[in-house]
Amino acid sequence: MAILGAMPEEIAPLLERIETKEIDYANNKFYLANYKNHELIIAYSKIGKVNSTMSATIMREKFGAEVLLFTGVAGALKTGLKIGDVLFATKVVQHDLDISAFGHPFGFVPGSPVFVETDKRLNKIAVDVANELGINLTSGIIASGDQFVCDESRKEWILRTFDAAAVEMEGASVGQVCFALGMPFFIMRAISDEAGEKAEFDFDEFMVNSAKTSANFVLKMVDRL
Ligand code: SAH
Which interval of the chain is the signal sequence (predicted)? Predict the structure, then answer.
């Protein structure tokens, strides 16, 4: 089972609690562990769609992962979502994929769906874990792109165009990999900022805590799988 984050802080809470063996590969580090009868492969991809595509593919093709859980932080798009809140993706979409000049919808290229659905069984387990622990967990569409969104008009556009609840930089590329390779996947995000003006300041202040919240939640899910 793969657990992927984008930044070191997003998997640090896991590495603190699980004894791992480190492997260097493809200019990155992968952490192997035996944890509660699971063979885990843990990594942070580094930021963005290309890096996360590469890591998800490696975790599947080289390390044999059969399920992927993503843990990390995101910017809130919908007004009900506040810093520290947790959500999982029902579907993922690439907000910066744009061949609309040819009459195609935003997020579309031939041969791939605009929205990729996450795994219903994993999502249900997340809901069960949240209920059990009394955690307020929401869900929605998560939009990914190769940009840190800290601009009101871009934020509004992504929200309106895709009805997305949150924005980040890796979920949809991981989704494309998992869709193509038939690997069930789950995308968990804790809110670090609200993706508007000066979001980078909130991000810097709240990222570590939100990353912890997300990682702890995903670890609880592993206990159930
Ligand atoms: N501070 C980092 C850069 C962080 S980029 C550095 O200097 O290296 C933001 C990361 O958090 C990405 O991995 C992305 O998935 C997530 N994220 C959180 N808030 C976001 C937002 N408002 N827009 C896009 N991605 C966001």
Answer: none
